[in-house]
Amino acid sequence: MLFADADLTLLFYHLLPEKNFQNKVVWITGASSGIGEYLAYSFAKRRAILALSGVNVERLENVKKHCIEIAKCAEENILLVPFEIQNFEIHEACVKKVLDHFGHIDILVNNAGVSQRADFKDIDIEVDLHLFNINVFGMVNLTRKVLGHFLERKKGHVVVTSSTAGKLGAPYSSAYTGSKHALHGYFECLRSEMVEENISVTLVCPGPVFSQITDRCVTAKLGEKYGHTQQTTDKKMATERCSELMVTAIGYKLDECWICIQPLLFIYYLAQYMPSIFRNVLIKLFFNKKTVMKMRQGR
Ligand SMILES: NC(=O)c1ccc[n+]([C@@H]2O[C@H](COP(=O)([O-])OP(=O)(O)OC[C@H]3O[C@@H](n4cnc5c(N)ncnc54)[C@H](OP(=O)(O)O)[C@@H]3O)[C@@H](O)[C@H]2O)c1
Fold first, then answer.
1. Contact partners, residue 54, CB within 8 Å, separation at least 6
2. 231 burial via Cβ count (<10 Å: 0-12, 13-18, 19+)
């Protein structure tokens, strides 16, 4: 447990032989940077066929180029589907684009997201709506559009990048934390509806991981950027380690997994299994706002 960087179930599965992803069609949103980008490389290494989404086309082109180098595959095996996830009305056309190109989808990875830092009391409601549109309704609507195809095929796998913030509230990011908790509500329900349909749901909860997320983090006012740039010395998980663990969780169709360095992982275990003692005693003694913020920033 001392050296664990994921929940023990996931670490156990990570020791087992890898699942085969060759020629599986995997659609990743938020693939232009950070966790989604490295997930694309992890799947390319395993010869999966990829549809990659994000907003920034130039970055997506670079990710595609790198995937082709890794997989040594034909250009047609990596399809770019750039779109703004808040434009719900174009989701159906995006699904059609992937299906027209590859014929089917095996795995949808709902990964696109933005984070936030601000005091609860100061946040404009527009910021809550903005975060929910991207982090929740974007994922929910896109999944609904893909679900018909999964039901027709009688198989499919929906993956959701939540966060450890989806399991426990932390100071200064209530809209983000609210949005990640909401994902658990939506996708737990979906899982329970899909039990007899051979459609799996995997909720991935990463802790701090190197990515662009804090650069683009929003604040209490819409349009304002928190703009905290990560340092290489920060105590965060390497993006590649996170993506490799995610591939295991996806391969073994785990319902939920936590991917997080210590001591945060241990804190989440305490919060999960000793909820009252954690909130009434441990938080007050050891985890004041300043300490928690430092941990989340990897400082
Ligand atoms: N890094 C962490 O510490 C951490 C921890 C827990 C959970 N997560 C979750 O991991 C996921 C990926 O984040 P990351 O850390 O890899 O951050 P990142 O480097 O900022 O990547 C975010 C990705 O989401 C895409 N995206 C953002 N807003 C979008 C929008 N409106 N429409 C379409 N795509 C959009 C971005 O596309 P463009 O760049 O093209 O705009 C980018 O590809 C998020 O859901 C985040 O909440 C991250």
1. 29, 30, 31, 32, 33, 36, 60, 82, 112
2. exposed
Which residues neighbour 167 within 8 Å (Cβ) at sequence distance 6 or greater?
184, 205, 258, 268, 271, 272
Q: Which residues contact 110 (CB under 8 A, 6 or more apart)?
A: 29, 138, 139, 142, 143, 158, 159, 160, 161
Residue nearest to atom 45 of ligand 1 (CA): 113
Residue 221 · residue 214 · CB < 8 Å: no
Q: Is 273 a catalytic residue?
A: no
- What are the pLDDT digits (tens) for 140-195? 999 999 999 999 999 999 999 999 999 999 889 999 999 999 999 999 999 999 99
| Closest of 110, 39, 49, 34 to residue 79, by C-alpha | 49
- Dihedral, CA of residue 22, residue 96, residue 245 and residue 5, to nearest 10: 180
Shortest CA distance to 164 belongs to which of 9, 61, 295?
A: 295
Rounded CA gap, 185 and 263, in Å? Answer: 27
Q: What phi and psi values does residue 288 have, to the nearest 5 degrees?
A: -75, 170
Give the integer Cα–Cα distance in Å for 62 and 137.
28
Report the separation in Å between the CA atom of 282 and the middle of ligand 1, taken as the mean of its atom positions: 31
Cis-peptide, bond into residue 208, ω within 30° of zero: no
Q: Active site residue: 13, 38, 176, 226, which one?
A: 176
Alpha-carbon gap, residue 166 to 204, rounded angstroms = 10
> Could you tell me how many helices (H) and strands (E) the chain has, helices first?
12, 7
pTM exceeds cut of 0.90: yes
